[in-house]
Amino acid sequence: MKLTYYILGLLALVISDASGHQAEDGSSPRNCQNIRENGFVEVGHYVVYNTVNNTEEAIMIYCDEKDGMQLMDKEGGTAGRSVARNCKELQDQGMNHDGPNIIYPYPDLPETPLLVLCDQTTQGGGWTVITRRDDSYDNLTDFVRTFEEYAAGFGDVNYDFYIGNEVIHALTDSSLNELWVTIEARDSGETGYAHYQYFHVAARDGYALPPYIMDSGLYEGTIGDGLQYHSGQGFSTIDQDNDSWDEGDCAWNQGDGGWWYKDCAHACLTAPYGSGYFRWTSEDSWYTLSKAQMMVRPSAST
Ligand SMILES: *[C@@H]1O[C@H](CO)[C@@H](O)[C@H](O)[C@H]1NC(C)=O
Ligand SMILES: *[C@@H]1O[C@H](CO)[C@@H](O)[C@H](O)[C@H]1NC(C)=O
Ligand SMILES: *[C@@H]1O[C@H](CO)[C@@H](O)[C@H](O)[C@H]1NC(C)=O
Ligand SMILES: [Ca+2]
Question: Where is the signal peptide, in residue numbers (predicted)?
Fold first, then answer.
């Protein structure tokens, strides 16, 4: 048993080094050589940073232990490493700052890495961000996308992005999850949150059911329950109408983003920037938005 604890301790040490953003001299790792100097010992994927327009942008690279070789987008290479399925597990392994990191979210593809954004500070941290919108970025991501693009995810974790319905399903299907939504209103600048103790996105292949059915519940917050109306709905996009509006296609009609439209939307966090459809509304609230974020984490009780 002592040996097990020793190995676990060693792994924790390695992981906390690997997931740490700052090198000892205070700079961010730029390449595999820096990762190695920070204590890297295993072949695998790591986060490094490029400076673009005075902004540090995280990218994922693959480092080979032997020669510090750097390869982009290589699959696999997790053997011997303790890998995390979500940002909560990264937090348990020592990640304590907000920022990008690598998870292995797919149960069927345990060696397939994904660069994600983690929030390790809000309400105790452990959150994996599933979408971020922010109209203050220079180069805004287009959210008018096909069903396949929403399934796979798009955008850049350094800026605005949608993580993808396959990942959201994988993250929320493996255990009970909670959801944390934050918004900023476009005109007033007012901010607030919605917390759901329950959030789940079902599989794409629901047989007779629409794909990626979203269920949310047990709301508390400051902005009203904008998801209640959408709970139980499948996912629709400009090229796939799975909504409950018989007369037409909500996605086409409501700004072209993909969402769990019903007949059609109370909240929609994927509609175009600057449009009235990018909003969060409920029985007692109405916000047109400039910023929004959704993030999930396994419930404390599981
Ligand atoms: C750099 O910033 C300027 C001004 O904010 C912006 O117009 C330009 O698109 C940015 N370039 C890149 C590569 O992001
Ligand atoms: C803007 O983003 C697109 C898509 O991510 C990218 O191809 C393009 O190079 C970016 N342009 C600038 C100026 O950063
Ligand atoms: C979902 O939409 C697709 C494409 O519009 C359609 O073929 C499919 O039958 C829909 N599924 C359900 C259950 O509504
Ligand atoms: Ca319809």
Answer: 1-20
CB 279 within 8 A of CB 268: yes
Nearest to 177 by CA among 294, 51, 16, 20: 294
Measured from CB, residues less than 6 Å from any atom of ligand 3 are 209-210, 240-242
Closest residue by CA, ligand 1 atom 14: 53
Buried b / exposed e over 93-113, threshold 16 CB at 10 Å, is bebeebbbbbbbbbeeeeeeb
Question: Measured in angstroms, how far is the CA atom of residue 177 from the centroid of ligand 3?
Answer: 27
**CA 43/CA 45 separation, integer angstroms:** 7
- The residue ranges of every structural domain in the chain are 126-298
What's residue 83's pLDDT? 84
The CATH fold assigned to 126-298 is: Gamma Fibrinogen; Chain A, domain 1 (3.90.215)
- The whole-number pLDDT of residue 32 equals 86
The pLDDT score that the predictor gives to residue 19 is: 43
Listed as ranges, residues in the chain with pLDDT below 70 are: 1-26, 39-41, 65-82, 301-302
Q: Ligand 3: distance of its center to the CA of 84 in Å?
A: 34
**pLDDT score, position 43:** 80
Near ion ligand 4, which residues have CB within 5 Å? Answer: 241, 243, 245
